[in-house]
Structures are given as C-alpha cells and as structure tokens.
Design brief:
The protein is α/β, with parallel strands linked by helices. The chain has two domains: 4-171 and 216-241, 3-Layer(aba) Sandwich (Rossmann fold), CATH 3.40.50.720; 172-213 and 245-281 and 298-314. The protein contains twelve helices and 14 strands. The structure holds serine. The site of serine has 10 residues, from loops.
Length: 316
C-alpha cells in the first residue's frame, strides 16, 4: 500500500493535491504536512496532518518513520516574487529543504520523490517560443536558480543513488480553492476574484505579457500520472516541460469579459514584470507527451468558465 507524505500541503497546489491523493489512495495513507500555516478543518479531519519544517531534517525523518512513508510529494517552496524579496530564505527553503528531503529519501530508501520544477528554471537567454525541454537554463531569480538546482539534484540522486526522483516544470497554476502566495503568475488567479467581487482589477504585469499557464485539475492529474508512469518509459526524470495554455493578461481579460461584460482592468507593472520578462511565453512539452502520455484538458475558455462558475459559488 502506498504511504505518501505531502509537504507544502496547505499551499495552492498542495491543498488540492492532498485531496486528490486521498481520493485515490485512501485518507489514512496520505499525510499532509505544512510549515506554520494552519490546515483547514476539512484537511485535518480527513486524514493525518503534521507540522514539518523542511529545514529540520529530523522532523522529516521522524514523520517518514512514524507513518512508514514510501513516497514524498515535496511541494513546500518559496515562490518567485517572495524569493526576490527574501532571496536568502528562498535559497534555504528551496535548496537546503529539498536536499534534506532527498537525503531522507536516500537514507530511508524511499520508493519515490516527486518535486515540481517551474518555467522559472528558464531565463532571459532561453528561446521564448515553444521552449524545448533541453535548452539554456540560466535563470536570473533565486527561485529559478533553486529550481534548476532541484532538477539537477533530482537527476543526480537518481543516477548516483537509484532514488526515483521525478518532476515537472509547472507553468503558472490557476485554481479556485487556495490562493497562491508570492508568485509572478498570481495575477491570473487574483483577477478572477476581483472580476467577480468588484468588476475591476489592477494587474501587476503588462497587458501583452504572455506566459504559459495551466488549470489546477490538469496540474494535479499531470503530477500523479508522472508519479505512476512506468520508469522504463522515462528518459527524463526531474525536468519535464509541461504545457497547457499560454495567454497574456489582455487575453484573459477579454475571456472574462465574455462572461462579465462590464469587467475592466488597468495595468500597473511592478517588479514582477522583470521576472515575467525572463520567462518563456510558450513551452514544448513533447517529452512529457511521448514518455508518459501527458495531455492537458483545459483551454483558456473552459478554464475561465469553470473558474467563474466555481468562484461565484464560493464568494456568494
Ligand atoms: N507560479 C510560479 C511563480 O510565479 C512559477 O513557478 O513563482
């Protein structure tokens, strides 16, 4: 039986991943772990919850032993914008934290570690359109540097120690359950809340700043599908490009206006614009398609309709 530990379980992706994993493997078999933010009652009641500081290797180790864990989904991380405000913290949490997870994985002979990377692994010198899986990785943010390090470490632990580490380069993730925190793509979530509440939003990126994005159901399904893929089919491990849709704030505004016609948006780019400018606008994910059959389901229109429908209920 699978015994899974999810770090970052109270975060944007973690909170929905825990739910999906509990549906699939059973509530008791998925241990949700957060750092300091309290879990929702729903998460705590459904199954085990632990507070873990990933900078404390012993805390990770004792949870792994206590629950007989064989798989870790390591979702705990500092995102790009917070990472530029607090680069030292981002270095410690994202690089030392991951190192601790990998070391526990190696020592406890875990079956698998899932670690998300990001489009932030790319940088200003990377080709912007249809960015290939194998390309220039010279990020200019601490977050990006930590993600490239994570990919290289993951592949190193696989080659050197036989630890099965897998990961995808996520684009910006859009979801209606838990808000993202401290990312450059957060506008694409905030905009929906403001469109429904106030019919007005001030976007911190430029109108034509196109970035790769993905709706949460695709993001969760993709990661679990990769975790379950036959290892013999995989040529890549920790660095799969993953794509769904690409759009600019202006294009998203037009889609939202189809449903909320009097919604308006102004653009006041801040320091996050420079981060966005260093990332690609679209991604080639043929390696993920070929090696484990990746296929996104949500395009911009379907995602926008679903977001507004779900958020209208939530914000009632
Ligand atoms: N959504 C993330 C961020 O903006 C990218 O991985 O930081």
């Amino acid at each position: 039986m699978k015994k899974i530990l999810v770090t970052g379980a109270v975060g944007q992706i973690g909170s929905e991943l825990v739910e999906a994993l509990r549906d699939k493997y059973g509530n008791e078999n998925v241990v949700a772990a957060g750092h300091r933010t309290k879990p929702t009652e729903e998460m705590k009641e459904a199954g085990p919850f632990e507070f873990i500081d990933v900078l404390d290797k012993e805390e990770i180790e004792s949870a792994v032993k206590k629950y007989n864990i064989d798989t870790i989904y390591h979702m705990g991380a500092i995102l790009s914008a917070t990472g530029e405000e607090k680069p030292q913290l981002a270095f410690r949490v994202n690089i030392i934290g991951l190192y601790n997870i990998l070391e526990v994985g190696r020592e406890q002979k875990l079956e698998r570690i899932m670690v998300p990377s990001s489009i932030a692994a790319f940088g200003p010198d990377t080709p912007k359109e249809n960015t290939p899986n194998e390309t220039i990785l010279r990020p200019t943010t601490m977050y990006g540097i930590s993600k490239v390090s994570g990919e290289l470490l993951g592949d190193y632990y696989f080659r050197r120690f036989g630890l099965d580490v897998r990961g995808v380069r996520y684009p910006g993730i859009i979801s209606n359950k838990t808000l993202p925190g401290g990312g450059t793509t957060d506008y694409a979530v905030e905009i929906f809340y403001e469109a429904i509440r106030n019919k007005y939003y001030v976007c911190f990126l430029k109108e034509d700043s196109t970035l790769p994005m993905m709706y949460m159901p695709d993001a969760i399904r993709g990661l679990i599908e990769l975790a379950e893929a036959d290892i013999n089919q995989l040529k890549h491990h920790s660095d799969f490009n993953l794509a769904a849709v690409s759009f600019s704030p202006g294009e998203l505004v037009s889609e939202i206006q189809r449903i909320i016609p009097d919604f308006t948006c102004d653009y006041k780019p801040d320091f996050r614009q420079e981060i966005a400018d260093s990332w690609p606008s679209s991604i080639d994910d043929s390696a993920a398609q070929d090696e484990w059959g990746w296929k996104p389901e949500f395009d911009l229109r379907r995602m926008t309709e679903d977001m507004i429908e779900k958020l209208r209920i939530k914000l009632r």
